[in-house]
Design a protein that fits this description.
The complex is a heterodimer of chains A (about 270) and B (about 300).
Chain A (H helix, E strand, L loop, with lengths): L2 H29 L4 H4 L15 H8 L2 H32 L5 H13 L6 H10 L6 H9 L2 H12 L3 H9 L4 H12 L1 H17 L2 H6 L8 H11 L4 H21 L1 H12 L2
Helix pairs in contact in A: 4-7, 4-8, 4-11, 4-13, 5-8, 8-11, 9-10, 11-15, 13-14
Chain B lengths: L1 H13 L4 H38 L2 E2 L7 E2 L3 H7 L2 H32 L6 H13 L2 H11 L6 H8 L15 H25 L4 H9 L4 H12 L1 H16 L3 H6 L11 H11 L3 H30 L1
Helix pairs in contact in B: 3-14, 4-8, 4-11, 5-8, 8-11, 11-14, 13-14
Classes of the chains: A mainly alpha (about 270), B mainly alpha (about 300).
Chain lengths: ~270, ~300
C-alpha cells in the first residue's frame, strides 16, 4: 500500500466514524425545526420539509426556560469562581509552601477523589438537611465549590513552575500572598482556564446534584427543567429537541472558545 | 522531591539552631492560611461525610428517630435482598460492556488521529463534543434514536435487512446494551484525549527503526504503540472502571432503571434507599459495598500493572 492510498483510507475512515458520532446531534438539530409528527417520519427526513423556527420562540412560553437558564448560569458562574479561587489558593499552599503535615493532608485530598460520590452522598445530604439548606442554591454551591479535584489540578500545574521564581520574589521582599497573586496566578493562566472551563461545563451539565437537592421549580436548573418537560409532554418530540438544542448551545459556544484549554486540563489531570 | 530533601537537609545544617523553629512555625501558619478556605469546605462536606458514611452503615437511622447501633444488621439485610443483587449484577454488566468498548474505541480514534492530517482538529473536536454535552440531552436524543418502531436506528437496521430489530430501552434484554452504547458514544472523546497525550510521548525514532527492520503497520502498533502506552492504558482502565461503578445519571434519565429492574444499578439503589426512603444506615451499607468494590478493582489493577512492569 502506498502512502497516498493509506492517507485517503485514513481520511475516509475518520470521516465515516466522525459522522456516526455526530449523527445524534444532526438529528437533534434537524428535529428541533420540525413538527412533532414529522420527527419520526419514515424514511428519515434529514432536512425538514419546512423549517419551523417558531419552535425556538414558542418553547419559552411552554416552560420557564429563562428561569432555568438563569439558575444554571448563576450556579455555574458562582461555583466556577469559588472553585478556581479557593482551589488555586490551596494549591499554592500544597505546591510552594513547606510545612509539617502538608503531604499527609494532600493525601487525604487525593484519597477522596477516588471515593465514589455515592458512597458519601447520604451523609452530605444529612448535613445539608440539618443545616436547613436542602432546596436552596447555597447547598449546591457549598457542595461543589471546594473540590479536591480543582486543588489537585492546580497543584500539578504549579509544580511545573520553577521554585527559583518564588525564591527570587521572596528575596525581593514579596510576601507569600503577593507571590501567589503577582507571580504564580499570571503564570498559570492556562491551568486556571482549564479548571474554569471544566468546572463550568460540569456544573452546567450536572443532573444528580440538582435532582437530589432542588425540589422547588423556581430553583431548577436547565437539566432538571428539560428532564421534567420530557416526562410531562413526551409526545412533543420536536419541542423536546428544541429544548435540548438550547441546553447544549451555551456549552458548544464555550467549548469552541476554549477548546485547547479543555484538552490541556484533561491532559494535565490525566498524566499526574 | 529528592532535590527538596537535600535542600531541606542543607538548610537544617547551616541555619543557626535558634532561628529554625521560629521560621518553621511561621511557614506552617502561612501554609495553613492558603489551604484553609478550601479545606474548611472540603473537610465539612467531603472528608467528614466519607468517614461518617462508614459509621452510618452500622446504624439504624432515618432522618427523624435517633440513631441506633445495629452492628452488621444492614449488611445482613442487604445480602438477603434480591434488589441489591440485581443491581450489583447490572452494575457489573454495565462495567464489563462499557470499559473494554470505550477503551478500544478511544485507542482506535487516538491512533487514527495521531498523524499529520489536515482536518485533525475538526475530527478531534467532533469526537470530544459528546463528552461535554449534558447527559439529559444525550439520554433524550438516544431514547428517540432508539425508539423501537420508527426510531432512526431501527429504520436503518430494517433497511439493511434486519427484520426484527431489538426494542432497545423497552426490552429487558436490550435496555442495558442500549445504555452501554450511548455511554461509549459519550465517553470515548475524553479517553481519546488521554491516549493522544500518551501517543505524543512515544519517540518517532522507535517507529523509524522498526520500519527499517521491515515491521508492518500492525506489528509496529502491537510491539511499539501498545507497550509504550501501558501507563496511559493503566490510568484509563482505572478511571473507566471507577466511573462505570458509579454510573447513575445516564441510567436514571434513559431508563430509570427499567424496564422492570433490567438496568437498575447500585448507585440508584443507594439513592432510592438513602435519599428517597430516608434509610440512611441501609443505604450507607450499600455505599460501603460500592466503595470496597471500586477500591478492590483499583488495587488489583495496581498489582497487575506493577507485575507487568517487572
Amino acid at each position: 500500500m502506498t502512502a497516498t492510498v493509506r492517507r485517503v483510507a485514513a481520511y475516509l475512515l475518520l470521516t465515516g466514524l466522525s459522522l456516526v458520532v455526530l449523527v445524534p446531534f444532526a438529528w437533534m438539530l434537524s428535529s428541533s425545526l420540525k413538527l412533532d409528527n414529522e420527527v419520526f417520519s419514515v424514511p428519515i427526513r434529514w432536512i425538514p420539509s419546512e423549517f419551523h423556527w417558531d419552535n425556538f420562540t414558542r418553547i419559552w412560553d411552554r416552560i420557564p426556560l429563562l428561569t432555568y437558564l438563569r439558575n444554571s448560569a448563576f450556579l455555574s458562574i458562582t461555583i466556577t469562581f469559588l472553585q478556581v479561587l479557593t482551589g488555586s489558593f490551596a494549591a499554592y499552599g500544597f505546591a510552594k509552601v513547606r510545612f509539617p503535615g502538608r503531604d499527609a493532608l494532600f493525601l487525604a485530598y487525593i484519597a477522596t477523589i477516588a471515593v465514589p460520590w455515592q458512597a458519601y452522598m447520604v451523609p452530605q445530604y444529612v448535613i445539608m438537611q440539618k443545616a436547613g439548606l436542602v432546596n436552596t442554591h447555597l447547598s449546591l454551591i457549598l457542595l461543589q465549590a471546594f473540590s479536591a479535584f480543582g486543588v489537585f489540578l492546580m497543584r500539578q500545574y504549579y509544580l511545573t513552575i520553577p521554585d527559583e521564581l518564588s525564591e527570587a520574589a521572596r528575596l525581593d521582599g514579596l510576601s507569600e500572598y503577593g507571590i501567589w497573586a503577582r507571580i504564580i496566578l499570571p503564570l498559570s493562566k492556562p491551568a486556571l482556564a482549564s479548571l474554569a472551563l471544566l468546572t463550568f461545563v460540569n456544573t452546567w451539565n450536572d443532573y444528580m446534584g440538582p435532582f437530589i437537592y432542588l425540589t422547588d421549580n423556581n430553583l431548577w436548573t436547565i437539566q432538571l427543567g428539560l428532564r421534567s418537560f420530557v416526562g410531562l409532554y413526551d409526545a412533543e418530540y420536536a419541542m423536546i429537541m428544541t429544548g435540548s438544542v438550547l441546553s447544549v448551545l451555551p456549552i458548544l459556544v464555550i467549548f469552541l472558545l476554549g477548546q485547547k484549554y479543555f484538552v490541556q486540563g484533561i491532559a494535565t489531570s490525566g498524566m499526574k | 522531591m529528592a532535590g527538596q530533601t537535600v535542600e531541606q537537609a542543607a538548610a537544617t545544617l547551616t541555619a543557626p539552631a535558634r532561628v529554625r523553629p521560629r521560621r518553621r512555625r511561621s511557614s506552617t501558619w502561612v501554609g495553613w492560611t492558603f489551604i484553609l478556605p478550601n479545606f474548611l469546605g472540603f473537610a465539612t462536606l467531603t472528608l467528614v461525610p466519607v468517614i461518617a458514611s462508614l459509621a452510618l452503615s452500622f446504624l439504624d437511622w432515618d432522618s427523624y428517630s435517633s440513631p441506633r447501633w445495629v452492628g452488621l444488621a444492614n449488611f445482613e439485610r442487604m445480602i438477603h435482598n434480591e434488589t441489591f443483587w440485581t443491581a450489583l449484577r447490572n452494575t457489573a454488566y454495565y462495567a464489563v460492556g462499557h470499559v473494554p468498548l470505550t477503551l478500544v474505541a478511544a485507542l482506535g480514534f487516538a491512533v487514527l488521529l495521531n498523524r499529520k492530517l489536515r482536518a485533525v482538529r475538526f475530527f478531534r473536536t467532533a469526537l470530544f463534543f459528546p463528552y461535554i454535552t449534558s447527559l439529559v440531552a444525550v439520554a433524550v436524543v438516544w431514547n428517540m434514536l432508539l425508539s423501537p418502531d420508527l426510531g432512526p436506528v431501527n429504520q436503518f437496521l430494517r433497511a439493511i435487512g434486519i427484520d426484527n430489530p431489538p426494542g432497545w430501552t423497552t426490552s429487558t434484554a436490550w435496555a442495558m446494551p442500549a445504555v452501554i452504547m450511548a455511554s461509549v458514544w459519550r465517553d470515548l472523546g475524553y479517553y481519546m484525549i488521554l491516549y493522544l497525550a500518551g501517543l505524543q510521548t512515544i519517540p518517532a525514532e522507535l517507529y523509524e527503526a522498526a520500519q527499517v527492520d521491515g515491521a508492518s503497520g500492525w506489528q509496529r502498533f502491537w510491539h511499539i504503540t501498545v507497550p509504550s502506552l501501558r501507563p496511559t492504558t493503566f490510568f484509563v482502565l482505572i478511571m473507566l472502571t471507577i466511573s462505570s461503578f458509579k454510573v447513575f445519571d445516564l441510567v436514571q434519565v434513559m431508563t430509570e432503571g427499567g424496564p422492570g429492574r433490567a438496568t437498575l444499578v447500585l448507585s440508584q439503589v443507594i439513592f432510592r434507599e438513602g435519599i428517597t426512603q430516608g434509610r440512611f444506615g441501609y443505604s450507607s451499607a450499600i455505599s460501603m459495598v460500592l466503595f470496597v468494590i471500586v477500591l478492590t478493582v483499583t488495587l488489583i489493577q495496581f498489582r497487575l500493572q506493577r507485575r507487568s512492569e517487572r
